[in-house]
Amino acid sequence: MTYLSETQEDYLLDILEQVKANSVARIKDIAQKRHVSLPTAVSAIKTLAEKNIIKHEKYSYIQLTDYGLSIAQTLIERKRQILKFLVNTLGLNEDIALKDAHKLEHDLSDETLNMLMKLNEFLALNPHIKAEFDKFSKMEAKMTLNEVKVGESARIVKILDSPIKNKLLSMGAKPQTIVKVEKKAPLGDPIEVTLLGYHLTLRKDEAQNIVVEVQ
Amino acid sequence: MTYLSETQEDYLLDILEQVKANSVARIKDIAQKRHVSLPTAVSAIKTLAEKNIIKHEKYSYIQLTDYGLSIAQTLIERKRQILKFLVNTLGLNEDIALKDAHKLEHDLSDETLNMLMKLNEFLALNPHIKAEFDKFSKMEAKMTLNEVKVGESARIVKILDSPIKNKLLSMGAKPQTIVKVEKKAPLGDPIEVTLLGYHLTLRKDEAQNIVVEVQ
DNA sequence: CAAAATTATTAGATTAATATAACATAATTT
DNA sequence: AAATTATGTTATATTAATCTAATAATTTTG
């Protein structure tokens, strides 16, 4: 029915969280939680009130309407399921999972979310499969950049700690960045590559610190 | 390095797509692809040019810089992996998968993306497990709203085609919406529930059309 | 090659989400 | 109860992404 922007959904959830924790929510609390200025919170609260999600009288507490509470509950449940997927099923650490869940909760279609939940359930019911996957996911990729053939592109999986790491990071390279091997000298040393628009010449021992995967 | 907003990333990918398909890209093409007006495209192109992602001279073609091309390739690869997860691993249909992938490509952390890829690989290498999951995911949930106990909340999984369906849709209820059973008459008919702030009284045969899951 | 058509740009507005500065109300304390 | 502190509001501005209207450059065509 009422459309809420992502930001408005975030405000709503923060209000509910605050009410739960503290029995009442004030403008100040919400501004703090959201790391925004008071006027910003005031105007967000006004918009939510216009949409009948909350009630707010000047200088007073913020209260959820039944409608607002119900929407919030649905959002919370979505987020809970997404977190479960990220933490339990994928085994990601809480920090990353929370950040990602926060974005996903706004974005995922009901259909996709439903399938993630099925996957959650499936692995919960089949611990041997879950264990197998966990083992598999912990195996390191073993190909390094020096093994990539001339003309081929690869995706960086990890950059091992080494002198070259900072140089690459400073150029903006990171896991998922695509590197192309342009040329190799005889014996494979040095190696010419391009990434993020830069041309680089790497020694073989430097390239060995860059773990990659070819598609 | 250079930060691109989601919108800017979208423009970049559309430019690359256009260049690939047509060997050159013009403002008009991009405006069409993005379903925006020409001035909007002009200003987006200007921003990307300032960030050294593309080159553009007044009234002329748009060209990717090496840097822009490289960023685009990384983005494309991300999206490809996400799509693979949604379509191959989860078995979602292409339309939904494309929409979701489009949003996820901007949102997912590298760590999460990496785990999704592991899951892709794991299931590709273990077709028997994949087959088992496919079978599992196709099993319908079988609990309906009339079976939920008084005081409990449930998540709507599906609303079967029936007279009640339109009524619920018009209230904004859909899969993932939370319903709470407030009261049941003796013999479980009728049933009082709340959802999205509404109080509803449902006949048992209506409630049987609402497939739910209790958490 | 001049007129017409196509494509691009500039100017000026709008909306959502943010900010700072200035002011107003409420609560606390001496 | 007056002064001080805490909290909230209003006025005004900014930024990114969009729009419409007006204008300009380029290309096509009769």
Q: Could you explain the architecture of this structure?
A:
The structure is a homodimer of 215-residue chains. Chain A has a five-stranded antiparallel sheet. By secondary structure, chain A is an alpha+beta fold. The first copy, chain A, has helices at 6-22, 27-34, 38-50, 66-89, 94-107, 110-125, 127-138, 163-170, 204-207; strands spanning 54-56, 62-64, 153-159, 178-184, 191-195, 198-202, 210-213. Chain A is elongated and about 75 Å long. In chain A, strand 5 (191-195) and strand 6 form a beta hairpin. The interface between A and B is large, with 62 and 62 residues. Chain A binds a DNA duplex (30 and 30 nucleotides) through helix 3.
Draw up the topology in text.
Two copies of one chain form a homodimer.
Chain A: H1 6-22, H2 27-34, H3 38-50, E1 54-56, E2 62-64, H4 66-89, H5 94-107, H6 110-125, H7 127-138, E3 153-159, H8 163-170, E4 178-184, E5 191-195, E6 198-202, H9 204-207, E7 210-213
Chain A binds a DNA duplex (30 and 30 nucleotides) through residues 5, 7, 26-28, 36-44, 47, 58-60.
A few lines on this structure:
The structure is a homodimer of 215-residue chains. With 215 residues, chain A is of the alpha+beta class.
Helix content of chain A: 40-55%
Count the E strands of chain A: 7
Structural class of chain A: alpha+beta
Strand order of the largest sheet of chain A: 6-5-4-3-7
N-to-C series of helices and strands of chain A: HHHEEHHHHEHEEEHE
The greatest interface here is: A-B, 62 and 62 residues
Assembly type of the chains comes to homodimer
What share of residues are in beta strands of chain A? 15-25%
